[in-house]
Write a structure and sequence with these properties.
Blueprint lengths: L1 H32 L10 H5 L1 H13 L2 H12 L2 H28 L3 H13 L3 H9 L4 H11 L5 H19 L3 H33 L4 H62 L1
Helix pairs in contact: 5-10, 5-11, 6-7, 6-11, 7-8, 8-9, 8-11, 9-11, 10-11
């Protein structure tokens, strides 16, 4: 209740400040608008000045922004070919984001997980250790669960089972990466396709006009170069995301290997204690 009162009081002060500022601004605007009647017939250029008009025009041009510039280049590069590059970018980013979310959710605190499993195994509560693995997401917990399933077998059989199941989990982690690589390869290829088509358009126009004009050649060359640039940019963007995904996969694979090694050490320690 106290926090709510303070928040309402602060909001009231802010509202009062805005009201006073609005009144002052209105007053200043009214004073600035009042001019002599002799100045009423002056043009805007004469009142502002040519230099100020040039600065305003430059500021207006800058306000177009990068988004409008990209839109213009997209249209100049012929939407028929640029749309294909854009579709590849969207599909590639969707695959990358899906993999990043999946891999991020698969990461767990490996040390804590193995510590909990070790406590359960030392107290001969194998089912409790399995329950911990089932309730923990990620490939590390799955590898540990696979080892606990064969805890009564020999060390060689346990290791063989863990390695085989680890291969399956690694393939799950890499699911969709081949499609990302395909998008990386397709994007510049589509750009080069636009380049070839743009060159063909230029030569067709030269043939139709019967004369080599810089204007005719420039139009086709522009389409060619813009599509190539966008194709390479898309490939570079997807390559960065792909490398990030690969780094996450390598990290999880390393955690799986460390978890398997530590789990085998836990089994060996427990068996040594039981034999004594």
């Amino acid at each position: 209740m106290k926090k709510l009162t303070i928040a309402l009081f602060a909001a009231g002060l802010l509202l009062m400040g805005q009201t006073v500022y609005a009144q002052d601004s209105t007053k200043q605007t009214t004073e600035a608008v009042v001019v002599d009647s002799s100045d009423a017939d002056m043009s805007i250029e004469e009142m502002i000045g040519n230099e100020d008009m040039a600065e305003l025009a430059e500021m207006a041009a800058e306000d177009i922004g990068m988004h409008q510039e990209l839109k213009n280049k997209f249209i100049e590069g012929d939407p028929r070919y640029m749309s294909l590059v854009a579709i590849v970018l969207i599909i590639g980013l969707a695959l990358c984001i899906e993999r990043i979310i999946y891999l991020t959710r698969s990461e767990v605190n490996t040390k804590k997980l193995l510590s909990d499993i070790e406590k359960k195994v030392e107290s001969s509560d194998v089912e409790g250790a399995k329950t911990i693995c089932r309730n923990t997401r990620g490939p590390v917990a799955s590898v540990c669960y696979q080892g606990l399933m064969h805890i009564n077998e020999s060390a060689e059989d346990i290791e063989r089972s863990i390695i085989s199941y680890g291969t399956v989990l690694t393939s799950r982690l890499e699911r969709g990466c081949s499609w990302i690589k395909l998008c990386i390869a397709i994007a510049p290829s589509l750009g080069f396709l636009g380049t070839v088509i743009g060159m063909v358009m230029a030569f067709d126009q030269i043939q139709a006009e019967g004369d080599i004009s810089p204007t005719i050649v420039a139009e086709g060359m522009k389409v060619a170069l813009i599509t190539t640039i966008f194709g390479i940019i898309v490939a570079l963007i997807l390559q960065v995301f792909y490398n990030f995904v690969n780094s996450r996969i390598d990290r999880l694979t390393t955690q799986m290997e460390e978890g398997a090694i530590n789990l085998m050490d836990i089994f060996a320690k427990v068996k040594a204690k039981s034999e004594k």
